[in-house]
User: Fold Lysophospholipase L1-like esterase from Albibacterium bauzanense.
Amino acid sequence: MKTPLIILFIFISGLTYGQTEETSQYHRLTVYGKAEDNGNSFHRIDTTRYPNIPGNVKRLLTNGAGLFVSFKSNSEYVKAKWCVTSRGVSPNMTAIAYKGLDIYIKNKEGKWQFAGSGNPATKECNEYTLVDHMDSSEKEFLLYLPLYDEVKSLEVGVSNAAEFQELENPFKKQILVYGSSIAQGASASRPGLAYPAQLSRSTGLNFINLGLSGSAKIEPAVADMIAPMQADLFILDFVPNSTADIVAERTESFIKKIRSEHPETPIIIMQSLVRESGFWNQEVGERVRKQNEQIGIEFKKLQDQGIKNLYFIEGKDLLGDDHEGTVDGTHPTDVGFSRMLEKIQPIVLEVLKKHKII
Amino acid sequence: MKTPLIILFIFISGLTYGQTEETSQYHRLTVYGKAEDNGNSFHRIDTTRYPNIPGNVKRLLTNGAGLFVSFKSNSEYVKAKWCVTSRGVSPNMTAIAYKGLDIYIKNKEGKWQFAGSGNPATKECNEYTLVDHMDSSEKEFLLYLPLYDEVKSLEVGVSNAAEFQELENPFKKQILVYGSSIAQGASASRPGLAYPAQLSRSTGLNFINLGLSGSAKIEPAVADMIAPMQADLFILDFVPNSTADIVAERTESFIKKIRSEHPETPIIIMQSLVRESGFWNQEVGERVRKQNEQIGIEFKKLQDQGIKNLYFIEGKDLLGDDHEGTVDGTHPTDVGFSRMLEKIQPIVLEVLKKHKII
Assistant:
C-alpha cells in the first residue's frame, strides 16, 4: 500500500500547488507618485536627465518613497510579488517600511483605509498576501512601494476568477515635498505613513515625495532639477540636512531659482523639527538652533525683497512635548509624524485654500 | 620622509584608539524588570525552575522585554557594549526595538525623558554611544534591554573621569503583565515604548513584562508558574493568542489558580484589541469577535461565582478609529500603543488607587 499513498500525496501536493498558481492573475501597473513621467521605471525621477545632481541624490531617487499603484478588483485577496536590492534595513526602521509594501482600500465613507502590509523576507524577491478572505464586492486599492529601497519589479496578484482593472491616479494636482530622511519617511512604520503620503490621502492631492535621506543640501543642481517641474505648491523641508552655513549660502538662490520658473506658486519653508537628542546633546541642540535661526533669517530676507507667497512653518513643538515622538532622537515614529501633521496640516490646508488649489 | 610620517600616523591612530579605550569605564549592572530574582541572568525568568512550561514560553522568557538597568553618573556620554543572538529582525519591528537599547534620563521635573537609542549592527556584538556631549551635571539613567532578543552580555560605559554609581530599581511594587506579542512590545519603535514600560514610567511601579509573542495560551503550567509569584496586580492580556476554544477551556482554571495563591489581589482581564486586518479579512474579524465574546463569558462566569476584584477592559476602539494604529493589521505601532494607553491607563490607575497600591 505504501507506493500508492506516496503517489497520492505527491498528486495532491502538486494539485494544491498548481491551483494556487493557476488561480492568480498577476499585473504590472503604472507607477504613480512621480514628479514627472519616466515610463515604467520604479525610480522617482529619471536621473539620467539630470547629470549634474550629486551622486547621493541620484541614488536616493531610485528609492520607492511616495510611489504607489492603484487598481480595482472584486478578488477576495491581493498578493504581491516584488524584488528589491539585497541591502540591509536601517536599525531605526522596520523592513516593511524600508523594503516592503502596504495597501489601502477605499471604504464606504470614501476614505482610504489601511488593509494590510507586504512583509519582505530577508532576500531580494518577495511574495506575500497583503489581504485575504475579503468579501467579493468590488473595491478600490492603493498599494505603496518601499520607502528606502529600489524596486526592481512589482506584480500585483488577484484571483483568476476576479475582475481586475488598473485605476487612474486618484490624487490630483502636484505638490513637491523636497526634504531629508524625515520627508522620505524615516521612521514611519510602513510606506503609507510617510508624512507626504498621509497628506495625499487627507487632501486628495499628489504630495510628491522628494525626501532624500541625509542629502537634502539645497544644491544648485537640485534647484535646477526641481524648479522647472510642474508644481501647485512647494514644501521645502531641507533644513535638517543642511548646516546653518549651507542654509545661509544656498537658500536664497534656491528659492529664486524656483521663483524664476514659478512666479506665483506658493512655497512653504519648514524649520527643522527640534531633535530630541538635542535636549541632552549640547552639540546637536546648538546645531539645530543655528540651522533654524538661519532659515528664519533667509525667509525674512526673501520676504524683504518682495518675494510673495512664501510661508514659514516653525520647528518648535513639531513633535509634541513628551519627548516620545522619535525612535532615535532624530527620526519621528508614527507618533512623531502624527504630531507633525497636527501642526503642519492646518497650515498646508490654509495655503492650499488661499491659493485655490483645493 | 615617508617612513616617519607613516610611523607618526600609526602612533596617532594608536593613541586615539588607546585614549578612547582608556577614558571609558565599563560596568556590568543588576538587571531589573524581573518577576523574581534570578541572579545575573539576562533572562526574564529562570525557566529551569519551571520544567513543565511549553518550549516556546521558555524560549521567549530569554528575550529581554521589560528588562532594564539603572545608574547615575556625571559622564558627558553613555556607551554600551552588548551581545545578542544572530537571529534576524521581524519585518514588523525595528532592529532598535528587537535587538537594541534605549536610554532615559530623569529630567528636572523628575520625569524619565528619552535621551537616545542603542542601534544594533547586523552582528551579535554591538558597541554604540547612546548619548553624547552632555553637560557634566549628575544624572540618573534608565537603560532598556532589547524586546525580542536574548541578551548575552551588557556593559555600560562612561568617561573614566566621571563618577558612576549603580542605582536601585526606581520602580516599586510588582504588577505582572501576562500577554501576547502586543504586551511583549511588537511593534513599539524601541524597547522603552512597550506598553508595560510606559506604564512603569507613568506610575512609578514595576510593570513586569511577561509578554510571550504568539505563545500566551493560558496553559496550566504557566498558571502554576505565575500564580505563586509576588504581585500587587495582574494584567492578563492573553486573548490575542488564544482561540475562543482555548479561552473557554482554560480561563476559569487559570484565574482560580491565581486566586488560590492571591485571594484578594486585583486582576484585570483584557479583551483582544480588534485587529485592523479583521475589518477586511472576514476570518480574522470573526476569530477576534469570538475570542472577545468568549472572554466576556468567562469573566461573567467568574464574577457570578463570587470571585472578587476582577476587572475587565474592552477591546473595542483600543486603537482609535482611523485604522492607522498598526504596522501590519495586528501589531500596534507607537501610535497604536499611545491610543491603547489612553484607554487602559485610566482604568489601571483607578484599580491601583482603589486597592491602595498607589
Summary: Chain B has two domains: 24-166, 172-354. The CA atoms of residues 223 and 254 of chain B lie 6 Å apart. Residues 1-20 of chain B have pLDDT under 50 and may be disordered.
